[in-house]
Amino acid sequence: MRIGVAIDAACDLPRDFIERNNITVLPITIKVDGQTFLDDRNAAETQRFIDQNMGSRAHEAETEPSSVEHVQRVFLDKMVVDYDCVICLTITATRSPIHDNVIRASFAILKHYRPIREAAGNRQPFLMRVVDTRNIFAGAAAPVVEAVRMIAAGESPQQMRERAAHIANNAYGYMLPRDLYYLRARAKKKGDRSVSMVSAMLGSALDIKPLLRCYRGETGPVGKIRGFEHGAQTLFEYAAKRVQAGLLVPAMSLSYGGELDVMRNLPGYEILLKTCEAAGVEMLESPMSITGMVNVGEGAMTIGFAAEEHVAEF
Fold first, then answer.
1. Which helix (H) or strand (E) holds 98?
2. 8 Å CB contact between 226 and 257
3. pLDDT in tens, 207-228
């Protein structure tokens, strides 16, 4: 059985990983300052966004995830012919309508695929599985990595869906922002009151950064750290300890809202890199999606992995 994978653009994974595994990306359209950016994990488009310093003024940007109609076209134009089953993994439904859009699109896809496949000489049924990763940005990567591994291992679609859902339920995504004013402005634009003006003012004045976690679809602060570099070191060292304790998927995903060399020069990065190498855990590093930078600000960092439930203390 030919099994394919589709993700939405806000799942932070390296472009070479996406290309190597023939992953289809459902794009997100960004409109800001009279310009339009297509967020589809294309390195050149992401670099264009960064080079124009859009990340510092994009809090008023409008984002449009793939519509129901666009998802239908992507599948009916190509995927129902190329594959016998597609597992589609989206960022958490609590933060984006893309999961609901894919679910709605799936009804029409499964209704209309037969004549398209028959015209290509294939009378076998087409299957589609949709999984909510219950996470965002780098935190959404682990279920995708596991799905790719299971395809290579020849697992069935049902086994893949069940395993991916289990990994999603145990996926942790952490985010360290640089600019609390930006984070508050964007939250206000979206009607999210999680970052108040007072906390933004105090945090900026004292250089205190919140450490945010997404877990099982819920996002909130789990700690406060003085200084971005100290925060990065704390997060890297914590991630290294989780690697030593054992991960459910041998992969650690990192994304950064800017040039990756800036992230790699942060304190604590080398500790995490060496720990992953010693444990046989793959480090998946990528620029943050344009959508991510729009929502949390340029220069933010996210880390994601899957592990057994535990209490994190910062």
1. helix 98-119
2. no
3. 788 899 999 999 988 988 999 9
86-98 exposure pattern, b = at least 16 Cβ within 10 A, e = fewer: bbbbbbbbebbeb
Residue boundaries of the structural domains of the chain: 3-169, 171-306
Specify the 3-state DSSP secondary structure of 166. helix
d(CA 47, CA 64): 20
Q: How far apart are CA 230 and CA 213, in angstroms?
A: 17
| Backbone φ and ψ of 156, nearest 5° | -80, 160
Query: How far apart are alpha carbons 75 and 112 in whole angstroms?
Result: 10
* 43-64 confidence digits (pLDDT tens): 999 999 988 877 667 667 889 9
CATH class entry, domain 3-169? alpha beta
User: What is the DSSP code string of 263-282?
Assistant: HHTSTTHHHHHHHHHHHTPE
Helix pair 197-206, 180-189: axis angle to 10 deg: 160
The pTM of this model reads 0.92
Which has the closest alpha carbon to 269: 299, 297, 313, 234? Answer: 234
The CATH architecture annotation of domain 171-306 reads 2-Layer Sandwich (3.30)
CATH topology identical between 3-169 and 171-306: no
The answer to whether 233 touches 198, Cβ cutoff 8 Å, is no
Task: Tell me the DSSP string of 3-21.
Answer: EEEEEETTB---HHHHHHT
Q: Which residues have C-beta within 8 Å of that of residue 241, sequence separation ≥ 6?
A: none
Distances (CA, A) of 177 to 88, 195, 224, 245: 29, 12, 11, 26
| Residue linked to tokens 């960064």 | 50
Supply the DSSP symbol for 33.
T
